[in-house]
Design a protein that fits this description.
Elements lengths: L1 E4 L12 H12 L4 E2 L5 H6 L7 E4 L2 E4 L1 H12 L9 H27 L2 H12 L6 H20 L6 H19 L12 H14 L6 H6 L3 H14 L2
Length: about 230
């Protein structure tokens, strides 16, 4: 059976990491049997790329949520995306990149840099660690994330510029989803695993931010999250 290594649930969500939640959602959508061992610090230390999630399947370790999904499609078939034509696949990939390479970093800023978001993030990610790790790790992790933000480029912008980028991404997602049940139409596809994970971490996490306030202007986004949760996490 596939073993999924990821962070423990937090914020009332399956995972506070949208990449972990994306992979768990994909496994549920594809109806692949899997188990989640209890999260430990050692799992993160043993992660080949130093990041969650990763899987162990038939003695093989596979890392990175997108590469893992590629591996699962190759190994177990592609029940979610087989109906997409070439144009739809291109659009789905573009929206996946918008979610994972752009909106993600704007949300990271609101969680790890802005004081109100950092208080919740520190509790959600590190609150269950034993003393003294719960005192030592959070500031180290925060400094590392801030460094990554700057290296990626998002952290070089002003707060208002970052929020502008995030608002534009959210608006594009809402406009494209419109009144469709799923992002590519009447049927779900693997893009929905990413979309649900990233939008739920924005809309359903108990963190007030300017980006969440903006997303709340689009009821179709929350309706979509509720639809996905009811179907795959009932």
């Amino acid at each position: 059976m596939i073993k999924l290594f990821q962070f423990a649930p937090a914020f009332g969500l399956p995972n506070a990491s949208p990449f972990c939640m994306k992979l768990e959602t994909y496994l549920r959508m594809a109806a692949l049997p899997f188990e989640i061992p209890p999260a430990t610090l050692r799992q993160l230390q043993n992660a080949p790329k130093g990041k969650m999630p990763y899987i162990e399947d038939q003695g093989r370790i596979v890392t990175d949520s997108s590469f893992i999904i590629d591996y699962l499609k190759t190994s177990y078939g592609d029940p979610l995306d087989a109906w997409l034509d070439a144009d739809q696949r291109a659009v789905a990939l573009a929206f996946q990149r918008l979610l994972e390479e752009d909106l993600y970093w704007a949300v990271v800023y609101t969680r790890w840099v802005e004081p109100q978001g950092w208080e919740l993030t520190r509790s959600g990610f590190f609150g269950t660690l034993p003393v003294p790790l719960k005192w030592l790790l959070p500031p180290l992790a925060r400094r590392g994330i801030i460094k990554e933000l700057r290296g990626q480029g998002m952290g070089r912008h002003s707060r208002e510029e970052i929020l502008t980028i995030g608002r534009r991404d959210i608006g594009a997602l809402a406009d494209f989803l419109a009144d469709k049940p799923y992002f590519m139409g009447a049927q779900p596809c693997s893009l929905d695993a990413s979309a649900y994970a990233f939008l739920a971490n924005l809309l359903l996490a108990p963190l007030a931010s300017e980006l969440k306030l903006h997303a709340n202007q689009y009821p179709q986004l929350e309706h979509y999250c509720q639809r996905m949760r009811s179907r795959y996490y009932a």
